[in-house]
Specification:
five-stranded antiparallel beta sheet, 12 helices, alpha+beta, elongated, Spore Coat Polysaccharide Biosynthesis Protein SpsA, Chain A, 459 residues
């Protein structure tokens, strides 16, 4: 059932599964002889990630104009709650730009839009559409298998070509995860001469398992790991081990057997090899064919993040709400900025920043902030085009930060200060500290480890 348009003055009376919106449609205004812009709103339930996943009503808006010079047009939607869509486009002259927004609380909001052409000319704001948002509803859904069958939901819905059921709960647009694991791990030599850095143990499981589990807990079960030479043990680890499982079965060690079976059943894991160590940007680019037209998350193995809600899940929520790429950031000491990519961000919400610029490992005196990128990203597939345009730097490496900065010059990128505890695995000392701290969170190790440490410090 398609979304219903509401004519000016119409009111949808609230029920348990329905929100109220009164909206003026087809407001036309003229900011200059160049621009005739139009915007309209519709009350829509989507079988889509943001709205179904968060069980909230969403509202879609469109704007279009024809430029006399044939210039491409970009649009900026202001949602009336202190946030905006970021510049969307450019779109060809006469094409329609769409934007979806959901408000976090009920109220009355004024929605407006403005446009910009390729010459940098910017129109004024349109007249406003008045939107009344009731308490976000809780809808009943008819689930569908992970194919093109639409998901239905009252009181009206729009189908999405890529819906799937996640953990028996909410449906959302298909998303994949990419985990770069092709680095040489030179900071951990000689241990990494024959063992991938990602396979070094953190307490009782390899570091990369924490990262895979984070993606899985966020509802992502299609994972691509970018490997390199000497990384075969990563594939072996997430595969079944028939011989070992047979021995455990013969010994009636079913607890350990269950742990091993869980590892091989974690997700649908794929692998591709980065043939040359050409940087993080190039490693992500290796995922282009697998990602195809889907949105995707990138998780680096240098950071383990422990949080009540998976860090990458927090970013996905922001990505859905903003319809724009999101990078995870955290505060670091000023003297530590030389080790990180640093974000110049404008606060636009709780923990959320509009990215104005990014710089990789700046000198302390040149760092625009102490907001450091923490190895978690959510992108649209458009990022691949920007990675392909990046000029290689030192050693021929292609930096992901450069591609994000280039993307941000044309579209909006956001940074989100995630809620959680980060553990660094970037060097040997940090790896040792992480092992100790995470071991102290485990009941079976805590007391004995504390006793051991007290004995060492007193001797």
């Amino acid at each position: 059932m398609p979304a219903r348009n509401i004519t000016e003055g119409d009111e949808l009376l609230s029920s348990q599964n329905e929100a109220v919106m009164v909206v003026s449609l087809e407001r036309v205004w003229e900011q200059s002889p160049t621009y005739n812009l139009e915007v309209e709103g519709s009350h829509t339930f989507f079988a889509d990630g943001v709205l179904v996943h968060n069980a909230k009503a969403g509202y879609t808006y469109s704007a279009s104009t024809t430029d006399p010079d044939g210039d491409n047009i970009s649009y900026l939607f202001d949602w009336g709650d202190g946030s905006d869509s970021g510049w969307r486009g450019p779109y060809t002259s006469g094409a329609t730009a769409f934007a979806t927004h959901l408000w976090s609380s009920p109220g009355t909001y004024q929605v407006r839009v403005k446009a910009s052409d390729e010459q940098g000319a910017v129109s004024g704001w349109s007249s406003s559409l008045t939107v009344y948002v009731n308490q976000p509803p809780v809808a009943d859904f008819t689930w569908s298998p992970p194919d093109s069958t639409p998901v239905s939901c009252p009181p009206c819905c729009a189908s999405h070509p890529k819906t799937q059921r996640i953990n028996g709960g909410a449906d959302f647009t298909a998303m994949k995860a990419v985990i770069p694991a092709a680095g040489l791990g030179t900071r951990f030599l000689p241990a990494t001469k024959s063992t991938p850095k990602e396979m070094l143990p953190v307490v009782d499981k390899p570091a990369i398992q924490y990262v895979v589990e984070e993606a899985v807990e966020a509802g992502i079960d299609d994972i691509l790991i970018i490997t390199g030479r000497g990384k075969q043990s990563i594939e072996d680890y997430f595969d079944m081990s028939y011989e070992l499982e047979s021995v455990l079965h013969q010994r009636n060690d079913y607890d350990t057997l269950e742990q091993l079976e869980r590892i091989s059943d974690l997700a649908d894991i794929h692998y591709i090899r980065q043939k040359s160590p050409l940087g993080l940007g190039h490693a992500v680019l290796c995922a282009k064919k697998h990602v195809d037209d889907d949105d995707f998350a990138v998780l680096l193995g240098d950071d383990i993040i422990i949080s009540e809600t998976p860090c990458i899940g927090q970013l996905v929520d922001q990505f859905r709400a903003r319809e724009a790429p999101v990078v995870a950031v955290g505060e670091v000491p000023r003297e530590a900025v030389v080790r990180y990519g640093i974000v110049d961000g404008e606060p636009v919400g709780e923990r959320l920043y509009r990215v104005r610029g990014m710089v990789e490992k700046p000198p302390v005196e040149e760092a625009p902030s102490t907001l450091a990128v923490m190895g978690r990203y959510v992108f649209t597939p458009e990022i691949f085009g920007f990675i392909e345009e990046v000029e290689p730097g030192r050693g021929g490496e292609i930096q992901l930060t450069d591609a994000i900065s280039a993307y941000n010059r044309h579209h909006q990128v956001y940074a989100y200060r995630f809620d959680g505890r980060r553990f660094d695995l970037g060097n040997k000392l940090d790896w040792i500290k992480t092992n100790i701290e995470l071991a102290l969170t485990r009941d079976e190790y805590r007391e004995q480890l504390l006793e051991f440490m007290r004995g060492k410090t007193s001797s």
